[in-house]
Prior knowledge:
By secondary structure, the protein is mainly beta. The protein has helices at residues 4-16, 42-45, and strands at residues 29-31, 49-54, 59-64, 74-76, 83-88, 94-98, 106-110, 119-122, 129-135, 141-146, 152-158, 163-167, 174-180, 186-191, 196-201, 209-215, 222-224, 230-234, 239-243, 250-255, 262-265, 271-277, 280-287, 293-298, 305-311. The strands form 6 sheets. The protein has a 5-stranded antiparallel β-sheet, with no helix packed on it. Strand 7 (106-110) and strand 8 (119-122) form a beta hairpin. It is globular and about 45 Å long. The two termini are 30 Å apart.
Amino acid sequence: MISRQAILAAVCFAILGAAGASLTPAEAAVRAPAFGPLRASPDAKAKALVYVSEFYTSTIDIFDQKGRGQTRIGTLTTGVSFPGGLFVDSDGNLWVANETSVGTGYILEFAPGATTPTQTIQQPSGYALATKLWRRSDGTLYVVDVTTYGGGYVLEYVPSTQTWTYLLDTNLIFETGIVGDSEGNVYAAGLNAQGAEVDVLKSGSSQWENTNISVPYETGELAIDAKGNLVVADPFTQTIQTFKHGSGQAINTIACPGGCTDIALDRSGTRIWNVVASTEPTVQEFTYPAGRLLDTVNVTQGSEPFGIAASPSLYP
């Protein structure tokens, strides 16, 4: 299946050409609105949930991690506007990248068990649409933005200084995934002029490097497994591949019939959920790393699932 990212990327190639073009944000680092402290419900942390964002319906469906052929047990809608990537932090807070329909995205945080946002973080005017995100343990957010013509870049938001900083990766034209590890390294996946690759911004560095992980057409979302390996969704080959740190050779492959776009591991790292494709209303659950299909969960037809997160999560 061709994902929504691939369609936008095709527009990018058509407009920018195969070599691409550098994007220049309105400001390298600008002040952002202040926001309150994190709030979490200890009771809600114990619930094992799966969140799935649905782009066209502006909803986030909630499923139990246990069960077979189940239906959703709840929905988040307040403040949600064309949601994309999801991430659950170590306190069980759900973070949501909202693309909106007005050209500038924003981030929502939902405390465990909450149905209204705990806080809203607005992206500054002049930035693009927030599609994916990852939150480091110190609160720093890394956000993938895409422009309306298909380009993309990574932004860093530091809450202590309330600033956004543009992190230029000259290797990539269009980012499709973001994650970090326990060593402070940040990984971005996306399209280049030849296909797609995964790059790393090592801790303390300001320069992105190619990890030598490449796929023939496009990458999906990224994750870190319980051993610190990098997990990459590959929609084109319909596989989920695992790579050791510093290696471009896959050490494990899971076949996901229909496609693999967005992935999330449970707290133990022994189960992984996969959004098949934005054009398919299907989420698959596999054992990890064996890849045995455990369950198939259906979301609303035509809703365009675009992000997934497990709670409690496997937090680096």
